[in-house]
Design brief:
The structure is a homodimer. By secondary structure, chain A is α/β, with parallel strands linked by helices. Helices cover 33% and strands 18% of the residues of chain A. The interface between A and B is large, with 61 and 61 residues.
């Protein structure tokens, strides 16, 4: 199982419509792959809010409309913010039946919307138990941050550091939402409060964007990257059903399965992409993925371990915080970055000697969790 | 590949919430299967409008919340009105990796909604080219009916006959939306116009409901039913991109593939479930599925061929028209009926000697089309 082609749009506040974004990414991935669109025998579309925000569903058929006279199986997967990693996971499972499957993640969140995006995003939360009590996502992650910071005695400085590193990385990524935006620790510290203790720079932005990834059952080019494992599991949707807010059980199970399947251990991972929808998530991810013990992520971060010149560069593309978070495309953007690093094509942001990379993509407050491990062929 | 268990709710204007409907169907299918919920190693959720109508997405995680301490892969598929047949198709493809996969289709369309259901359903249409010109679905199918009736010289009487047969069949189905509703040809003929030539009785209703189907990689009981073929393909979303409105190319391709894969021919089919979202669709389905030539479906219908005592009983459960159309569950309701007929468990509505059945499920105006063929083990 190989990744044969990747393509993406810039992320940010863009003028393109949802179908235009999808088309741009599809086109880029075909060019990158050296395949023809006729070689693609199945497509999976990943999108979260096409209905509520854009008034457009049946996106499988919408994608068919973009392509010349194509009559293949196309379908859409939605699992909140983890949609595109689950779509990738399904494409891998389907390689029994197909040769080249395209996975297209797309989201349009900044303009021409049918409702407020924060209200729409909250549809990934439990309506009955969480949302009705005010738990939109910044509030849920604020509760998680409160519990984490209290239990492990860390200050907001650590979260600021996460935000700062992500923004610095995004400065090297021309596709990033916040490319060439100079962000200082002071700006982060003094940004407006969203939900205590999380301020504006703890939160990922609303982004438009699309990413397309082509997976194949055979190695089709010298630039192919191997999929060593893709695993995902599901947990309950409501925070009220969780025993512990400082760890996501679904991430622990998915990563354990992925390490086992790939025979890879955390110390083999050269670059890591984590789902930093809020800065606190990055700390929890490092622990749930077993890069350190519970409560020790702040130490890793503050000692520079996760910086681009550290032992384990994390979110070299800027992460959700600064690369951006067009929800249905986010997991594939992580894949895009890891593939680019393994190929040695990351230009200014290239990390030396990357042979293996991992992505971590989460839906809601850990209701869905996917872990993917990629390696050199 | 076998269907091991089936379960459903009544369809109609129900008091249960979306999670309650899903739970009821899940529970019924587990009881029917003689499996335990612990035997299920993957779940696919099918739903169309959970976001726009109910404000609830990430339904995979919502379903996990309904089940005791479960951490398995669960994901949601959406392909408009064909969502649940595509989910079934994917479950079959995944039997390489799992033993027993549950497919749960659910839709809540009649109460406690965030917007008007007709406006929400229209999200399956092309927003840019069709919907912006007034083509909500009754209007699109009215255009299709106009073109069909003109080309083949049939009157509205034939459509009335389709509606009448479906309502008569539903009278034998205690789960049907219109169970024990006495409908006469006069009522149908005199019902209010919706979009000329389609009147109220040409249109399927808004229904709440859920269906769950368990598929297995081995024969797990004497009541198992074999999946002979499941096939689906995608076409362009907009009517403006179609050369011919009186036939759906995606249905033709999917059924041709399914006949080939199963080595079944139309004359082998004992019961047929077609996607009669509007009565005109039933005529087009009979032709696209190759039960007769183009323009000859009206003859089959008027000669009683598709009635329950005819050679090919169609929509023995009442079809979308009278069994109901809870969109994300509709394709699985068709599977439920065919499995029940093959098992010989359809009570009052049992057709004698059913050994093979077929379902036909369509998204939008043929943007997605799925065909499934089931047979006795």
């Amino acid at each position: 199982m190989y990744i044969t082609g990747i393509g993406r749009t810039k992320f940010g506040n863009l003028s393109e419509s949802l179908p235009e974004l999808a088309y741009e990414a599809i086109y880029a991935s075909i060019i990158d792959s050296n395949l023809s669109i006729k070689d693609i025998d199945c497509i999976i579309v990943s999108n979260f809010l096409g209905g509520p925000l854009n008034g457009q569903l049946q996106l499988n058929s919408m994608v068919a409309s973009l392509l010349p006279d194509i009559h293949i199986p196309i379908f859409r997967i939605e699992t909140a913010c983890a949609s595109s990693s689950i779509a990738l996971n399904q494409s891998i499972a389907l390689l029994h039946n197909f040769n080249n499957i395209m996975v297209v993640g797309v989201e349009k969140m900044t303009s021409d919307l049918m409702m407020g995006p924060t209200e729409a995003i909250a549809m990934a939360a439990d309506k009955e138990f969480d949302l009705s009590n005010g738990l939109i996502f910044p509030a849920s992650y604020a509760l998680i941050a409160q519990q984490y910071m209290r239990r492990y005695g860390i200050s907001h400085d650590v979260l600021e550091r996460v935000s700062y590193i992500n923004h610095k990385n995004a400065n090297l990524n021309p596709f990033a939402h916040f490319y060439h935006k100079d962000v200082t620790i002071e700006m982060i510290k003094n940004s407006p409060m969203v939900a205590s203790p999380l301020n504006l720079f703890d939160c990922s932005p609303l982004s438009d964007g699309a990413v397309s990834v082509i997976v194949s059952n055979q190695k089709r080019s010298d630039r192919a990257v191997k999929i060593l494992s893709s695993n995902f599991v599901t947990d309950s949707i409501s925070l009220t059903q969780r025993k512990d807010l400082t760890s996501f059980k679904a991430v622990k199970i998915a990563s354990k399965n992925a390490y086992k399947e790939s025979a890879v251990s955390p110390r083999d991972v050269d670059v890591l992409e984590v789902h930093d929808c809020f800065t606190i998530s990055e700390l929890i991810a490092l622990e749930d993925l077993n890069f350190c013990k519970s409560g020790q992520a702040s130490q890793l971060i503050c000692e520079g371990y996760t910086s681009r010149n550290g032992e384990l560069p994390v979110n070299t593309d800027g992460g959700l915080k600064a690369n951006g978070h067009p929800i249905g495309a986010t997991g594939l953007a992580q894949i895009y970055e890891v593939v680019t690093q393994i190929r040695g094509e990351a230009d200014e942001r290239q990390i030396d000697g990357v042979e293996m990379g991992m992505t971590h993509n989460v839906g809601g407050v850990g209701g869905t969790a996917a872990v993917t491990i990629l390696g050199m062929v």
